[in-house]
Amino acid sequence: MKELKMFDQTSPTDTSMLDVAVGPHCRLGSGLAEIYQRWVIALIPAMAASMFIFGSAALRIFGLCVCFSVAFDFISEKVAPSRDLTSNWSSVSLALILAFMLPLNAPWWLIMIGCLLMVIVGKKFFGGVGAYPVQPAVLAVAVMHLSWPDRMDYTAALKDMDWSVTMVEPLRLMKSIGSAAAEQYHWYDLLLGYQVSGTASGMVFFILIGGLLLLLMREIQWHAPAGFLVGIAVTAGVLHMADPMAFASPIFYLLSGGTVFMGLFLITDHTTSPVNNTPLFLYGLLAGVLLIFIRGYSKHVDGIAYAVLLVNLCAPLLDMIRPKTKGA
Amino acid sequence: MQQLLNLFNKKPALPRLSGYDPVIRKIDDPDHVVLPLEYKGQVHYSPVVKAGDSVRKGQAVAKSRNGNAVIASISGKVREITTVWTAQSVHSPAIVIDRDGSEPMTREEMFDGPAPAGDLEASMMRLRAAGVAPPWALSGREWEEGEMADLPRVETVIITGIREETTVLTSQLLLDQQREKTAEGLQRIGKLLPGARICMTLPESFKSWANSLFSELAELYYLPESYYYRIEREVVAKILGRRISNRESYRYHGVVVLDLEYLLAIVEALDGRSPLTHKCITISGSGINEAVTVRFPLGSSLRHILTSQGLEISDYTRPVVGGPMKGVAQYTDQTPITYYNGIHLISGDIAPFDSIAPCINCGRCTRVCPVDIQVHLINRMVEFGQMESTKSLSPEACHECGLCAYVCPAQRPIVQLLHYCNHDMIHGERFSWAAGGIS
Q: Are B70 and B57 in contact (CB under 8 A)?
């Protein structure tokens, strides 16, 4: 049949503009910006609470973080063009996550270095959004914790404030006086954010609202936070029973510091977490166990940064637990 | 505000039709029809007419080795025997017939009365001669004489009273409007294949009346209005209780999947009323508030079908033959339409995919995959050329339903990446997974 002449299928009207795309011909997604805008939406309740409590000081942290991050992202895109475009909002969402964990009195240069570490080292060096092995904001916080421990001191940052609660980081007080520290704080103060912690990482109730928004938008799965909760409750419960003097109850661990922030916003970052349900639960469980051990047995006060970094590195291993493909 | 609320909605498995016209419209015969003779992995036909011959509607113009026929759908003169690109981008031989308005063949000329009941051989010959067992009606290719004997007996017949694409309404409209004839067809199938299991899929909304009418004749499977639950291979796997590999034809496993439209055509042919010359197709898409279903002569061009409904191809940027998920976009409106069930028209500048978007490992693709492929891993492995690593993840289970690319927030070309991977693994030089291939 090959020698036969082709039937003239071209049409008299101009159909050269017809678009020969491949299926599927309809799409739900509209770009990465949508995803990271949702994360920013989920961060808004805690940001609002922080600005209500701290006023313009918190606004300064958020503003500087976002400005520096976007600027670094834009410059690095110009210097080394990659597929990670500034317009995808990932630097904004990461900048806010970083700002949540900074102390309120962080100087501008510290914020700048933090953003540099986060955007250039944590994100761009590894290949941009979607390719980083550990959450970049957490990486930046960990580096700053080790390099400028005095500047990253939450207790010193809030020494001029007086909320008629003990103005010491709950976990730091517990480090020095043991589980008796738990009696110094009311659970409702801890819940509403009247505790010494980062700019917004201690706004437990408002972070819970944000996490709920993420869950409702189907941005994160419930498995990781659930596993995290179980991990904390079991580990802290066992340690508390074994040594009630040194270890407080699980509730105290949950409400103090950035625990809830870690469970809902840091470990659930989809790039650095597994995808399937079982490994996701195990991942959360491991994060909870690691967090309590770091808090209990290391010199770090609020070990969320290290717990997140360690558990992020386990994610590829956990991703090997996967359901059997049907019809394979 | 609505956009804000939409953030929290459960995402639909596919956009639904806003509405549809339940009447199946008839359209006029076109100036010419083009009858392609070859389909992907199916029976090959040879023309039995020459250029210049006069043919009449109902006359066989091409035959396969086993006597399957392609029937002229209009009366006229054979202009030429040539080649065309079919809607599925197969370069196929084809017969072009110009209309001259002469009389169609009468029923007596075509058939000598109803086929003798109970005689399987005679019935099959009748179906073949009437074009009801053309390449597209029974899955599988042209079997060699020896192979025919080796084929397993047909044990399961699955009649699709509902098509997988949510925009295609042909089967469900015909089922609703021709209930008695469907029941008749089910009986005929039962007589032709004694002992075979006869199953039929139906829309859930038909439950109220269909149970009483069909439950004696077939096992009924009601499918919800969602593409996810209607994907053909998944439905077949659910009905059979086991899976047929993507590479293998249903026929090797004694399974036949038959469109309801062919069931009705079988009744017509066995009764000696008419051969298969017409087919229904649903037109949907942007700007069409009510999807329209038309009955057209086989081989009409896409343009003829659209102009008959007052639609202009110049209003659209992407005419898709099939549904929005699995359909094939056409580069011209002269494509001959034969066994397809839907036309989906897209207007405006819609990017097919974002070729540079990075994967952010959000996992939506893996969670939506009906066969649990680890899409989030495979698509990146293929992107970076690590084909070897995909081997343990069995990408060959993919039946390219398109759901992963549909949900991908980065709009990555996931289906194409998987297809490329499978193609390279099977047809490529580096690896060889299995003999044969997926089409």
A: no
**Number of neighbouring beta carbons within 10 Å of residue A37:** 16
- Stretch B122-133: mean pLDDT: 81
Task: Note whether B233 and B254 are same-domain residues.
Answer: yes
Is A162 among the domain residues? no
Residues spanned by the domain of A141 = 32-147
Q: What percent of chain B has pLDDT over 70?
A: 90
pTM, to two decimals: 0.88
pLDDT per residue as tens digits for the range B381-430:
999 988 888 888 888 888 888 999 999 999 899 998 998 888 877 766 54
**Number of domains into which chain A is organized:** 2
The one-letter amino acid at A135: Q
Residue B9 makes CB contacts below 8 A (sequence gap 6+) with none
Which of A3, A14, A28, A86 is most worth mutating to test chain B (most B CB atoms within 10 A of its CB)?
Answer: A28
The tokens for B396 are 């060959």
The answer to whether B231 and B162 are in contact (CB under 8 A) is no
- ipTM for the predicted complex comes to 0.86
Q: Alpha carbon of B196 to those of A236, B190, B385: distances in Å? A: 62, 7, 47
**CA dist A96 to A64, A93, A226, Å?**
10, 5, 24
Closest residue in B to A90 (Cα–Cα): B360
Whole-number mean pLDDT of chain A? 90
In a domain, B376, yes or no: yes
Give the whole-angstrom CA distance, residue B41 versus residue B245.
16
In this predicted structure, what is the pLDDT of residue B194? 83
In a domain, A325, yes or no: no
Contact residues for A257 (Cβ-Cβ < 8 A; gap 6+)? A169, A170, A171, A195, A197, A201, A202, A301, A302, A304
* Chain A environment of B406 (Cβ under 8 Å): 24, 26-28
The minimal CB distance from B415 to the residues A14, A23, A221 is found for A23
